[in-house]
Amino acid sequence: MTSQNITNEQLAYEKAAKRVEELKGFYGNLISYCIFIPFLIFINLKTLPNYYWFWWPMLGWGIGVISHGIKTFGISSDWEERQIRKYMQKEEENAKKWR
């Protein structure tokens, strides 16, 4: 039983470490966005005030940040694991019915 507990602890640790890496990646992306987009706006307004090109990188990068946030906080591997468990339980129940 101790080896099983160690393995479960290792799996839990690896899962938590993966989650922390996902969060770190998202927040790094968000901070970079919040720093560089105002910098690009400043450059745009100082060099070419008649054409607002900063909208394009802001839009593109913003879509990336939003999709990264959805992946990190929305539908993630946690959701996938719950769905897999749900279907496995249904299969077990169906198998028990036919025994």
Brief summary:
This protein has 99 residues and is an all-alpha fold. The chain contains 3 helices and no strands.
Model description:
The chain is elongated and about 75 Å long. Helices cover 87% and strands 0% of the residues. By secondary structure, it is mainly alpha-helical. It has helices spanning 2-47, 55-73, 77-97. The longest helix has 46 residues, at 2-47. The mean pLDDT is 87.
Q: Which features does this protein show?
A:
single chain, 99 residues, mainly alpha, 3 helices, 87% helix
Order of helices and strands: HHH
Question: From the alpha-carbon coordinates, what is the Rg to the nearest angstrom?
Answer: 23 Å
Structural class label: mainly alpha
Distance between the termini: 30 Å
For the biggest sheet, the summary is: none
Give the count of helical stretches: 3
How would the global form be characterised? elongated
Please give the number of β-strands: 0
Mean pLDDT: 87
Report the sheet-strand fraction. under 5%
Tell me the helix content: over 70%
**Poorly predicted residue ranges:** none
